[in-house]
Write a structure and sequence with these properties.
Elements: E1 2-8, H1 10-14, H2 18-27, E2 31-38, H3 42-48, H4 58-65, E3 70-77, H5 80-88, H6 101-105, E4 114-116, H7 120-130
Antiparallel strand pairs: 1-3, 1-4, 2-3
The structure holds adenosine-5'-triphosphate and magnesium ion.
Adenosine-5'-triphosphate is lined by residues 52, 57, 61, 91, 109-110, 112, 115-116, 118.
Length: 136
């Protein structure tokens, strides 16, 4: 079993599809180990996406992630990191496969409905950023 970190992003919460995304997560066989609704500050969003600090889209990305409430999740499954990335689809919803979260619920590359850790090291950092050990 492996754990990964997921976010139902502010666009998805605003659009009222958080429940549908959660149902898809459960339907795909993930165990929801941790879940909380939060509203990140700009500084918290910057800390979370620090690896993208030098990118031209960093300002817009962190404005968006702090624009409203989102749902943070710890998900568990066999090969959870890849399994959740596959279920999310490509970063750009226009390039994502039908049936993926980003195709079905994302509007654009910067309003793309969900986040998922991309490697064991990032999953460990991201889970620790949002959850205390005792919660998981
Ligand atoms: P995430 O980390 O949110 O799960 P990802 O791993 O698929 O997405 P990253 O390369 O880590 O993609 O980019 C982080 C986020 O930054 C993306 O979800 C997207 O919203 C935004 N982003 C990435 N590339 C671009 C781009 N070229 N233009 C605008 N926004 C972008
Ligand atoms: Mg990423």
């Amino acid at each position: 079993m492996q754990r990964t970190f997921a976010i139902i992003k502010p666009d998805a919460v605003k659009n009222g599809v958080a429940g549908q995304i959660l149902a898809r997560i459960e339907g795909a066989g993930f165990r929801v180990v941790g879940m909380r609704m939060i509203h990140m500050s700009k500084a918290e969003a910057e800390g979370f996406y620090h690896v993208h600090k030098a990118r031209p889209f960093f300002g817009g990305l962190t404005d968006f992630m702090s624009s409203g409430p989102c749902v943070v999740l710890c998900l568990e499954a066999a090969d959870a990191i890849k399994k959740w990335r596959d279920l999310m689809g490509a970063t750009d919803p226009a390039k994502a496969e039908p049936g993926t979260m980003r195709k079905d619920f994302g509007a654009s590359i910067d309003n793309n409905a969900t986040h998922g850790s991309d490697a064991p090291e990032t999953a460990a950092f991201e889970l620790g950023y949002f959850f205390r050990g005792m919660e998981l």
